[in-house]
User: Fold these one by one.
Assistant:
Number 1:
Amino acid sequence: MPDLGVNLCGLILPNPLVLASGPLSWNAGAIRAAWAAGAAAVVTKTIRPPATTNPMPHIAAAGGGSLLNTEGWSDLPAAQWIDRELPALRDRPGALIVSVGHTPAEVALLAGPLIAAGADALELVSYRAEDAVPMVEAAKEAVAKETVAKAAVSVPVLIKVSANWPDLVGVVRACVAAGADGVTAIDSIGPALRVDVETGRPLLGAFAWLSGVAIRPIALRTVAEVCLRHDVPVVGTGGVGRAEDVVEMMMAGATAVGAHTAPLLQGLGWFGKTLGRLESWLADHGHASLADLRGKALAHLREPASSVPLAFAFDAPACTGCERCVTVCAYAARRLSPGREMSVDRALCRSCSLCVTVCPTGALRAS
Ligand SMILES: Cc1cc2nc3c(=O)[nH]c(=O)nc-3n(C[C@H](O)[C@H](O)[C@H](O)COP(=O)(O)O)c2cc1C
Ligand code: SF4
Ligand code: SF4
């Protein structure tokens, strides 16, 4: 059986799946349910001193495995998390990452009590890039005090970053210099908009935050950008829905993989299903350990662009005759004869690769 275990900032996890912060981690009972379903770690809903009051409605399906939301932070006050929810999780089967934000003053106020209440790690989150470093400083100060006071093991601090931040790599560099132990990348992206064409009203009545499948390429880019420049553990988060997406996130440099939209849309059974498929995928591809795949794509990102024309291979028995490869060629370079003979006009072909990437069976390949 392939080894799915990962080491996230000293937290030894049996598998890479982290339930990212959101409504599925809204209280102690919900967090327990996520561990029971297979999540190795759970990030709490973001805790701030007062509870938020969310607009109604505030979450909508946006199609294709994506969501829009206008949800704020936790609708439970910090005092309830510290006095009731976190202590109720003291005896637990998984790692507990406590999300806290959104300002340096709030982190300074809450980090100590949240660690004392049982956090295995802190995840700091803010909408403002300029808050990141002071939040890390405030959290590290609290960690140092708690560690000395309890003669305990130090609690790692992760900074959650937004793909909206223009100098993301610079912010991560400064956060690591300030003592951040890891990075969570990324938060939901926005503002974004969908309009209900039957009513003419914006979905959720406002600009909103986008998560799920639609943001995965941006999440992957962000993870890779961070990992190309920093040797720091990253919880790759954003649009992960299938076992292959977990592998892709690891290959982009992630150490562990977060998800919220997929388990929210598909139910907590998503964790067990994804772990089973991940094991099968690794076994089928001859990999003994998931962690060995970490960062596999990064070296390729350092290579220059190629100017060598593609060489095509066609596996006729695997071809269904769907003609997708023919339809998508803007230069009408590709032909499929009624007898399933594939040809390409090399004078017209620009080696763009689109035909190969739309083939549903792998009958058409390129190298
Ligand atoms: C409804 C909803 C609420 C969320 N609330 C929070 C939150 O309170 N704090 C936070 O850091 N991220 C929050 N997120 C962002 C997720 O943790 C995650 O970073 C983002 O959705 C991308 O991952 P996904 O595509 O797997 O959902 C929320 C996401 C959703 C969909
Ligand atoms: S590689 Fe691009 S240009 Fe060439 S046949 Fe395929 S789709 Fe057409
Ligand atoms: S897309 Fe693939 S399966 Fe469909 S016709 Fe082309 S080679 Fe055959």
Number 2:
Amino acid sequence: MKIGINCGHTVSGIPGCGAVGIIDESEETRNVGLKLEKILADAGHTVYDCTNDYANSTSANLSAIVRMANAQPLDLFVSIHFNSGGGKGTEVFTYGGTKHAEAVAVCDKLHALGFANRGVKYGSSLYVIRHTDAKAMLVEVCFVDSASDVDLYHKLGAETVAAAIAEAITGQTVINTESEELTVTQYEELKSEIDGLKPMIYDYMDDNMPEWAKPTVQKLMDKHILVGDDKGRLGLTMDMLRIFVANDRAKLYD
Ligand SMILES: [Zn+2]
């Protein structure tokens, strides 16, 4: 898909910036939006960043966003925002309030993460919805001035929120690269990789023991310099064998 992503508003403190509550909308639209862009690009989609950081006014910001969005044909335009003004949860605005699949899925996915589902709403009066050529939606992730929304948002992290939106608009499953949970397959692969890195241990005077090391090891055992553990395991690495043999050649054990 060709997807235009807008991190809503200008940066904080500039004309056109977002609402400030417990968190700052301008900062969080970028935290979520830029991660969303990366996830979509990694999943093979063509992503156009339609973010305008600096403008002289709100209307200049909005027209700059629309210019970037309409500069190429898009399958979907998504503007990321955070709400304010007393309320809780997620809502998505579309042209005419059309409940297209991506918009409904964003509400459902964010609801599944714990946000209240305020649904898909009439957004034709919103500049970026009205003026973009592509199918468009404006996502209000949650409320910057709701303590419970902000707590949940912080608990989840911007990456998880971005991944949920990406899954909603593409239908593809996103592997959260920041997650510390490994799948069983990932665990098995990692385990065999680590096992491969483990040094070979020579415990006994058997066929595994390199021929060149045997006389020295035998000598050290005879002299009770090497006695092994309580089960008689020598626990020698290749490096240790080399050092013993070199010392033996230097006649340190004679
Ligand atoms: Zn906003």
Number 3:
Amino acid sequence: MFINKNLIGFAGNYKKKLLFVSFLQALQTLTLSAISLLTAFIVKRLIRNFEATVFDDLWSIFVAIFSLVILRFAISKYASVQALKCSVGIKRNLRTRLQKKIFVLGPAYTGKHRTGGIVSTIWSKVEWLNDYYAKYVPSAISAIINTIIIFAILILIDPIVAITCLLFSAAVLVCPIAFYQIMKDKGFKEASASAKYYSDCLDGIQGIVTLKSFNSNDKQREKINNQGEILRKTIMQHLSITFLENLTLEFFARLGAAATVVVGIVRALNGNMEIENLVYILFLSTAWLNPMSAMISAWHKGYRGATGAEKISDMLKQDTSISLFNKFEENIDNLSYLINNDNNRNLDVSFIDVNFFYNKKEKQVLKNISFNIPNGTTLAIVGPSGSGKSTIANLLCGFYRTDTGSIKVGDKILNEENVLSIQNQISAVWQENYLFYGTCYDNILMGNPNATHEEVINATKRANIHNFIMNLENGYDTVVGERGVRLSSGEKQRISIARAFLKDTPLIIFDEATSALDRRNEIAIQNSLNKLIAGKTTLVIAHRLETIKNAEQILVLRDGFIEGTGTHKELLGKSNFYQKLMSIQV
Ligand SMILES: Nc1ncnc2c1ncn2[C@@H]1O[C@H](COP(=O)(O)OP(=O)(O)O)[C@@H](O)[C@H]1O
Ligand SMILES: [Mg+2]
């Protein structure tokens, strides 16, 4: 509890530095105790023999005290800089680890957790660790070392006095155990409330258009205010327990210092100890009390760190087997060499008896899905919304694991060894595509970071977005805003299609990729799209008849199972369900 296992683990390669900082802090504390001891020595000499000449004997001790004061000042400045460097380094490493973890876990994790909660762990909870490393650990270690040394000196003076001091030290160190559980509960409540508050605020900001258009600002504001009130209450409850605990500890510490002196006086009065030694006891009890008080006031920071650490540890311990990318956690900074470009040009795609649940407690989303897309052909999937079409695309991209059954791409069964190489051969355009805060150019370049300027322009021309971009204020250097907010959904979609043109892979996924385009734009780029998919293995989740009609195969999905397969003509002849779907379309 004094030194939290998780937190020491997080220190990683900063462990030695952390130990060094604690050593410096202990040295600083011990310097102070030495100054007290020397001062006590001078005072004792003065009481025994107060003459002007006494300074002739004691000058060397004055010099020693003066040197110690300078030394202590230097150590304290150096130690605080080192402590800060240490905690900043640990925080940076930890944030990098958490980000890697999120990228490895992917949509299977982010789909189940609120963004605000994730950000709050990576940002606030990691921030909570600052004082743990910079203040709590050094002050706890130095208070303990200081207590041991003062106890050793007191034993030389008088064992009974020493034991009194030791008993109170034990009380101060053991008392937190009694508060541990309640502090932990309150800490967790505060951590959860702050994550929820953060998430609600983020939700409100991201959904501001919807809130405005439904005139629901007040409701969301009220929700945020209520959560803010809950957060305030949990912080106050946490603080009041902390206050109570601090009060108890301070009480024992101060009582301990007083009791040590009183026991010393009684011992001296009873003739068990030289009365002059009381001077030492007086100074040493203060030298014991000060570091103890510093440690007590750092307690709360230590607890907070431990609470944050559990949230962080929960995220770091997340089972990566939910995602196919779990093999790459260690190498995520340098994935390129892991991609095996074996120029496998036979890219038949097969689903073999695939069953899938997003959540075992909910309905089964895909049921015994089997199909084969021969190399270079197109399979279109149609079906009502919610029937599982996008889920098939998600599985092919390796975002989730199938529960049973397998997916074959070329001659390889999709697994954690080859997911990166296979993904490198897929371009996907989704119904909703994410644009990052940055320029149009950078957003398109994401499709292929090694592309030349000419290739980028060529891709945007084919996606019918070049002229639009050229008319923007700064052309390709125009910043698209967060999530591409300054573009219409059709423009965003055309930028995403340009990305796919630029990536130019043998396997293509279109998940309602043209749904946000108006007819004019769709017709304008249909020709380019046809060129893009010509000769490539393509999975099209389609909402328009034209795209479906030309597909070599159509798969009709209903409620997670395959209702029928065939060409457009065949299906019209044999499937009522397909006829109904098409009649709605027309
Ligand atoms: N991340 C998710 N977590 C839980 N359930 C999901 C998730 N994504 C989709 N679903 C559910 O899976 C089913 C199929 O969804 P989806 O494949 O997106 O349908 P479609 O693309 O055919 O409209 C739906 O019932 C949907 O609610
Ligand atoms: Mg969908």
